[in-house]
Amino acid sequence: MAEKTTLENQQNDESFAHIIDELQWRGLVALSTDEAQLREALNSPITFYCGFDPTAPSLHLGNLVQLLTMRRLQLAGHHPLALVGGATGLIGDPKPSAERNLNDHETVASWVEKLADQNRRFLDFEGKNKAQMVNNLDWTSQYTALEFLRDIGKHYRVGKMLSKDAVSARLNSDSGISYTEFSYQILQGLDFLELYRRYNCVLETGGSDQWGNLTSGADLVHRVEGANVHLVATPLITNSDGKKFGKSEGNAIWLDAELTSPYAMYQYWLNADDADVVDRLKVFTFLTRAEIAEFEVQVRDEPFKRAAQKRLALEVTELIHSKQEAQAAQDASAALFGAGELKELDEKTLRSALNELPNIECSAGVTVVSALVETGLAESNGQARRSIAQGSVSVNKLKVTDENAVIDQYLAGKMAVLSRGKKSLAGLFFSQ
User: Fold this and answer.
1) What phi, psi does 199 have (nearest 5°)?
2) pLDDT recorded at residue 282
3) Going by DSSP bridges, is the β-strand pair 393-395/359-362 parallel, antiparallel, or unpaired?
């Protein structure tokens, strides 16, 4: 969990004359309403919001883009409203491919609390221009079906609703779209209207894939209240190879340590491609333009040192978890793949690191040859024996020379690290 001191140490880059300039330089503005009007609005403190639907028990790295954008706006003197979708989470934003499975009320309510707790890590809810937490169930639940249709639904035109990308994609698919999901954009639009009325909220931020829903709210505020409000959408971040950012082997990278360990988080950023790392530093850290320029030179001239990746991994892991967890993850990475000492790792850190490697459960007396085959580090007993003879096999960084050797030396928590070569590692968990 991010510490209070982490928030206190954050600041925007003073080399930029305006917060919009910094957001643009960091690559955080893909779409917006009129830029001149937006700049003018942000010259004085305003209230803005971003919404997070509880469709899972944790936020992920895609959501972190929004949280950090909110934090930068807060540091610029503006008041964030962190909205958790207790109502919209019961419906779900239409996916382009298929209908969502509806979660029950109890599940959504529990996820609302989890997401609210995660928001509190990244925004300041106590200091100057403190953030506030809001739940759209508080106002949506007050509407009857007739009131909702008469007071809100009448301001929407079906033709425009049909033009939204996700809706259009679903209409042209075999699955179609239910009226439930079709109405999602009206529910999200209602959020902006209510927040405008209750808090004089005049800006919504979100991802560019949500632009249709963002404009729904802005249009509704204009129709009902006659006010012009503002929108800023961040780009959908992809890797240089075109793959969706924030995925690892098909799985989302979660902000919850129980779902993605600090070590796994650290390794994800450490493995950033040279072509991506500078952009990642801009989006996910509070390093200044001058500091990032230095890393850009290092990536160009000395990419083998991976200095930018190491700094990125440390900064983001500390931001999401803590300085202590980030340091432990760094130490584990160095111990496994560098010159660090395995025996200095605590049981929790070592276990989380080995869980990210090929691993097996072992009984006492397992041979090195058997472990090599069972972990997939060797294809056969013969290959395992040849590797030992060649001097390329080690247990806990100690070279194995006897092809009949038994693993009987353990690290914390009765674990061991098996390696074949420098980069092929596996974890062994022994029965207590």
Assistant:
1) -125, 5
2) 98
3) unpaired
What is the phi-psi region of residue 45: left when phi exceeds 0, alpha when psi lies from -120 to 50, beta otherwise? beta
Task: In whole angstroms, give the CA distance from residue 344 to residue 337.
Answer: 14
Phi and psi at residue 409, to the nearest 5°: -115, 120
Token pair 């960084």 is found at: 397
Q: Which residue has the tokens 């894939």?
A: 209
Strand order in the sheet with 47-52: 31-32, 230-234, 201-207, 47-52, 79-84, 132-135
The amino acid sitting at 128 is K
Has residue 38 got a pLDDT over 80?
yes
CB 47 within 8 A of CB 81: yes
CA 160 to CA 157: how far, in whole Å?
6
> Which CATH superfamily does the domain covering 359-430 fall into?
RNA-binding S4 domain (3.10.290.10)
Q: What is the mean pLDDT of the chain?
A: 94
> How far is residue 411's CA from residue 61's CA, in Å, rounded to a whole number?
32
Question: Rounded distance, CA 89 to CA 187, Å?
Answer: 10
pLDDT in tens, 137-162: 999 999 999 999 999 999 999 988 88
CATH architecture of 4-234: 3-Layer(aba) Sandwich (3.40)
Burial class (CB in 10 A: 0-12, 13-18, 19+), 357: middle
